[in-house]
Structure formats: structure tokens, C-alpha cells
Specification:
mainly alpha; 18 helices; elongated
Length: 467
């Protein structure tokens, strides 16, 4: 029997036979202590399913071997001879590797913490790291404009085109001629985005003042002085005046005296430091236009005069409302005397308009009547009546100013009689003439005082007055 067992065990195995070794490891084919898997023969042949299962088991066994060997190598490198882990907790149990240690256990790397200790699930970064607030990105698809707080909208004013600039600036300048407030003009200009055409404002303001009165030119000079350095630079001012010098042939068509006036503007601008001091020197030998030469010569003459810089403050004269009363009275007396000599009503009207004192025209009426009372003959009376009639018809002297002038003479007639004894009859005759020519109203004529005359009965009545 024993011989049969030995022969069976030592006999060569047939192809496809599976031998069964009755070892303790055979009962646990997946044990870590068993490195091999016994081949099993079933009925002398392998089925395809068994063959595939066998190959899978071989592959799994190879993987377990590789994993086991790599784990042993990493543990031996990280654990010292005393069983302590380098850099570990000194109070920890020796020879034990913590599972929550962040060092690599794959056998790769230098054994340092992954990502400098800042990696891992639920970790916000390395110890001591401070995160700054990140600005939201507008290009982020999840960007929410409402969630960023209050939205501030900025008003963007488009730049004014050169063609529309004159239409927008003209009303500002004309309104300034009425109120004379330079600060309001500055506020209005800031609301406009003039851009590169800012210098055009200077040329427009000067051009409008050339067509206006002397007071308008004075206001324009003050405006340019106030805007210089705030809204306009000296370079922009010089550019504007250079443009106007080139446009003088066109400006003369509307204003024949434009070259002289522009020269006064240039002289006043240099005196007020609106234009650079070397403005005139830059044109020496470079001007071909005759009108531009006249303007530059006028400016040079004004600046070369004695005390020229100081005297240029009144280059346009003093405005009507700012002139002293004595100066206005003197101007009106001179106007009336020239009229009595020349008899030119249009010239007298032009001179009165240049004074720009419509609120003081009653003084002209008063002085005209006083001249009639002090004159000899009827010539002055008829000439003054024609002058007042012309002013009345053109609307230069209003009803209020005419009535105030006559009423002032009525109130002072008793004092005038001290110098002119026959003032009463002359006054009565002049008032009747003016009423006949529709210069004054009937109510104003009736208000004229009449000198009462005492009529006695006879020389021997004892001074009795006839009723």
C-alpha cells in the first residue's frame, strides 16, 4: 500500500492533471504567508473558466508582492534604529507610524510634507498663511453686479464738435453781456466738453464784442483775464488771437474798425498776462496781411506809451453805470453844445448811445431845457425841441425819463429865476411848443408852474388888489 502511494506521488503527471498537496496553506490561498497558489487538477483537464481564474490569481499575487515590498522599504527609510520617526512627535509611541502623517509613504520624494503641509482634504493652507481679500473679476461668469454693493454711474459728456461749438457758446457770451458774472460763465463752460477746441471760445467772445458796445469789450477783457489759468492757458489764448489775425479780412466786412479794436484786445491781454509777453515779437517780419499789421502796430503803440500797462485798464473806457455822475453830466453838456453848433441829430444820438446810461437820460432832458432858458432867441428852443422829438420817436428816451427831466426843471424853476429873470415866460413857451409837437403829454404841460401877476385897480386905490 505504501509502495502504491510512493509510486503515485513519484509518477510523472499527465498533461492537464492537477495535484493536490495537503498542506496547511492550501486551505487559505489568499493568505499573506502563502506566496504561491497550488495548481488543482479537475478530472484531468482545465476548463476555460478555471484557466482565466488561475491567471487572474497570478496577477493579483504579483501585485500584492510589489505592494508589500514597497511598503517595507518606505518604513525602513523613515524609521530610525531607535524606532523614532524623524521630525515626529517626541511623545508618540516609538516604532509606530501615524496614519494622519502628511509625509509621502509611496517611497517617492524626500519624505517632506506634501505641498509644504498645506495640502489635503479640509486644509486651507499652510500654518500662518493669511489670505487677502480678492477683488471680484468682472469677466468671471459668476460675477454678480448687484452683489457688489451700490453701483455708481458716472456721467460722460461727449466732446463738442467744432461745427456745434459756436451755436452752444454764443448764448453763453450774450447772456454774460447782460449779467457780467464771470463765475457763471466758468460753471457753464465746465459743463461743456470742449476738448481740443477750447481756444475757440476766446475767438467767439472777442468776435461778438467787436460787433457790440465798448462795455461789451470791457466785459470780454475781464472774462478772458478771469478764465486765464483756470480754463484756458496762455498758449490757447495765443492760438485764438492768431486765428483772429488771420480772419481780419472777413471781420472787417461787419466791423470796419476791427483791426484797431483787435490791437487793443492784444495790448490789454498782454497787460493782464492773458497773452505771453513775447506775443508781438513772434510776428516781427512774418506778417503779410495789411490788416494784421495795423492791429499789431496798434498794440505796440499802446504798450509803448508811458504807463502803458496801467493805462490799459481803461482802454475801452469806463462802463456807463460805473462812471461818476459829474463825468456823465459833463459829457451830456458837451454833446448838447456840439449839437447846437452842428445841428447833426444822428451824431448826437450816436454819442448818447455810447454813454450807455439809459437810466440817466433824464439828465440830458434837464440840461437841454436849462440851455433853452439861458439862451437868447428862439433858435435854441426850436433845435432842442427837434432833438428831444427825435429821441422820443426812436425810443432812445422813454416816457419816464422825459417826465423826470421836465419835472426836475419845474421843481427848480424858482431857483433858476434868480439867474434868469425871464425863465417863467420862456419855460411856458417851450412847454407849449413841445406839447404841439407831441413831445410831452397834456398832463405834463398842465403841471408847468405859471408865474402869478398882481393887478392893481389904480395907483391911488391904496394898494387894493382887483378881484
Amino acid at each position: 500500500m505504501a509502495t502504491q502511494v510512493d509510486a503515485w506521488s513519484s509518477a510523472p503527471q499527465a498533461d492537464g492533471a492537477v495535484t493536490l498537496d495537503h498542506h496547511p496553506e492550501a486551505s487559505c490561498p489568499y493568505s499573506d504567508d502563502d506566496d504561491g497558489l497550488d495548481e488543482v487538477e479537475v478530472n484531468g483537464n482545465w476548463t476555460p473558466q478555471e484557466k482565466a481564474l488561475h491567471e487572474a490569481r497570478l496577477k493579483a499575487k504579483a501585485k500584492r508582492r510589489l505592494r508589500r515590498s514597497s511598503s517595507r522599504n518606505s518604513t525602513s527609510d523613515s524609521v530610525s534604529e531607535s524606532g523614532e520617526t524623524p521630525g515626529g512627535d517626541p511623545h508618540a509611541v516609538k516604532g509606530k507610524v501615524h496614519n494622519n502623517d502628511r509625509k509621502s509613504r509611496t517611497g517617492k520624494g524626500r519624505g517632506l510634507p506634501k505641498k509644504g503641509g498645506a495640502g489635503g482634504k479640509g486644509v486651507w493652507g499652510a500654518p500662518g498663511m493669511v489670505y487677502e481679500a480678492e477683488e471680484p473679476d468682472v469677466r468671471d461668469p459668476n460675477y454678480d453686479e448687484v452683489a457688489q454693493g451700490d453701483t455708481v454711474y458716472e456721467t460722460v459728456v461727449p466732446e463738442v464738435e467744432e461745427k456745434e461749438l459756436e451755436k452752444m457758446v454764443n448764448p453763453i457770451v450774450l447772456e454774460y453781456f447782460e449779467h457780467g458774472d464771470t463765475k457763471e460763465v466758468e460753471v457753464l463752460l465746465k459743463e461743456l466738453n470742449l476738448g481740443q477746441h477750447k481756444y475757440e471760445f476766446t475767438s467767439v467772445a472777442v468776435s461778438l464784442s467787436l460787433e457790440g458796445k465798448a462795455s461789451h469789450r470791457e466785459l470780454t477783457s475781464r472774462l478772458l483775464s478771469d478764465l486765464s489759468g483756470k480754463m484756458l492757458t496762455q498758449g490757447e489764448m495765443a492760438h485764438a488771437f492768431d486765428k483772429m489775425l488771420k480772419e481780419l479780412p472777413d471781420l472787417i466786412l461787419d466791423t470796419p474798425e476791427a483791426p484797431q479794436m483787435l490791437g487793443q484786445f492784444i495790448a490789454r491781454g498782454i497787460a493782464d498776462h492773458v497773452l505771453p509777453m513775447n506775443f508781438l515779437d513772434s510776428y516781427k517780419g512774418k506778417v503779410d496781411c495789411e490788416h494784421a499789421r495795423v492791429a499789431l502796430d496798434r498794440a505796440a503803440v499802446l504798450l509803448s506809451m508811458k504807463k502803458g500797462m496801467i493805462g490799459l485798464d481803461n482802454v475801452w473806457g469806463v462802463g456807463g453805470g460805473l462812471r461818476p455822475v459829474k463825468h456823465l453830466v459833463k459829457k451830456m453838456n458837451l454833446l448838447l453844445k456840439e449839437y447846437l453848433i452842428s445841428g447833426d441829430v444822428s451824431e448826437a444820438e450816436h454819442c448818447l448811445r455810447d454813454l450807455e446810461v439809459p437810466h440817466f437820460h433824464h439828465e440830458l432832458v434837464y440840461e437841454a431845457i436849462v440851455m433853452v432858458l439861458e439862451s437868447n432867441g428862439d433858435t435854441a428852443s426850436h433845435m432842442m425841441m427837434k432833438l428831444l422829438q427825435s429821441f422820443w420817436k426812436t425810443g432812445l428816451i422813454t416816457v419816464d425819463q422825459m417826465n423826470r427831466g421836465f419835472q426836475r426843471v419845474y421843481d427848480e424853476l424858482h431857483e433858476i429865476c434868480l439867474d434868469v429873470p425871464h425863465a417863467h415866460p420862456i419855460m411856458e413857451a417851450f412847454v407849449d411848443l413841445c406839447y404841439q409837437e407831441s413831445v410831452i403829454t397834456k398832463q405834463l404841460r398842465d403841471a408847468c408852474p405859471f408865474r402869478g401877476r398882481k393887478r392893481f385897480v389904480s395907483e391911488g386905490d391904496g394898494g387894493l388888489i382887483k378881484n
